[in-house]
């Protein structure tokens, strides 16, 4: 593949990822079908298939983006800091809120929760209780 074709392929792949992200963050991953992504991105469905065999391959590309959006506003120094930063981010940061509410198919829930358990400093039981309280808060306040 020539350099020009390689760059075009990389740009197309990135356009697919960006479009899938925009669709997912606004409407959920279930709406990010290959057909809808292709239509929204202005490319052919076969163009998507050239880069991604399965929808789960797109999810794998979206996972680090989601993780970054979710982790960026949070503080991990203690369960209390984490809880306060979670509530603040959920209430004041639309992108964080949308990422939390649409992350399920992108970041398997248990993987995401365990990842938080590992980076919050403090007592293991307090950390678990805090994370579950944050998730519960998000579910209750999701509408």
Automatic annotation (TrEMBL):
Residues 10-70 form the HTH tetR-type domain. Residues 33-52 bind DNA. GO terms for molecular function: DNA binding. Keywords: DNA-binding. PROSITE patterns: HTH_TETR_2. InterPro entries: Homeodomain-like_sf, HTH_TetR. Coiled coil: none annotated. Gene3D superfamilies: Tetracycline Repressor, domain 2. SUPFAM superfamilies: Homeodomain-like (SSF46689). This is HTH-type transcriptional regulator LuxT. It comes from Aliivibrio wodanis.
